Amino acid sequence: MHWWPNHFGVAKVFEDITPILLSVGFYIRYHEAIQTVIPEYGSGWKSKMVISNLAEHQGYTYFSVIAQSPDGRMIKKRLPLEAYLSVVAATNFKQRIRKMLEYYYADRNNYAVAGTPNRLEYDQDFSLSLVMAPRNVKPIAHLYKSQVINSLNI
Q: Which of 2, 3, 73, 93 could form a disulfide with 69 if both were Cys (CB 3.0 to 4.6 A apart)?
């Protein structure tokens, strides 16, 4: 855990949620979901879910996964419904755990909890029931996840 002061006078906390994600089986569940469409996906791989490009595609919206192997090879596959739902269900662990910890620190310090969607989540109106519900203040809604991570120099 790291503390960084900022210009609002409220300390920022970085807390690694990896041990919690491991304990709830996030990585196993996520990898299994991706492996249904990319069987070779495994340790050392990176991936992200993307939405169909409406400029290139007319019709209904669908989701794909883009995966990068440890040697840099890129694979893009469309996600069937079951795989999509499994990826979303597993990924929701991250937002719920993050929000749980935010409420812990808010309760401990008598603070309010701000909404925490990043730009992609905000643009897609992604929110979990009662998890990202505080919508009056969204301090990182204009930033992509990579910008948030890079700003922390992690």
A: 73
